[in-house]
Amino acid sequence: MLFSGNPKVNVFPNPAVNNQFFLQTPITTKVKVYNMIGQEILCETASENAALVKVTAKQKLVSAIYLVKLTGGGIARSIRLVIP
Predict the structure, then answer these.
(1) Alpha helices, DSSP H only, in 1-84?
(2) Cis peptide before 13 (omega within 30 of 0)
(3) For every one of its 84 residues, what pLDDT tens digit does the chain have, with 9 covering 90 and above?
């Protein structure tokens, strides 16, 4: 997954397992997860050049499709995340 300004961002695994996914990004990135009706489920910040950031929801996420919104460095990207 790429921000439009070329910094590479990896979100995996997708579909996610055990209410968690991992994020790797070269810039400090705010991570927000929304359900399909627009409710914010999670908000965290991933540090710049972190080897790997583990993102875990505090509440159990039901099987559904979620939107992960990544913002940082004046750039925004949304990624679909599947919870089986």
Answers:
(1) none
(2) yes
(3) 434 455 577 788 888 888 888 887 778 888 899 999 999 988 988 877 666 778 887 778 888 999 999 888 888 888 899 988
Report residue 7 as tokens: 């910094």
57 exposure class (CB count in 10 Å sphere: 0-12, 13-18, 19+): middle
Tell me the pTM: 0.79
Q: Which tokens go with 55?
A: 């993102």
Give residue 69's identity as a one-letter amino acid code.
Answer: K
Rounded to an integer, what distance in angstroms lies between the CA atom of residue 29 and that of residue 70? 6
C-alpha distances in angstroms, 78 versus 30, 36, 69? Answer: 12, 13, 4
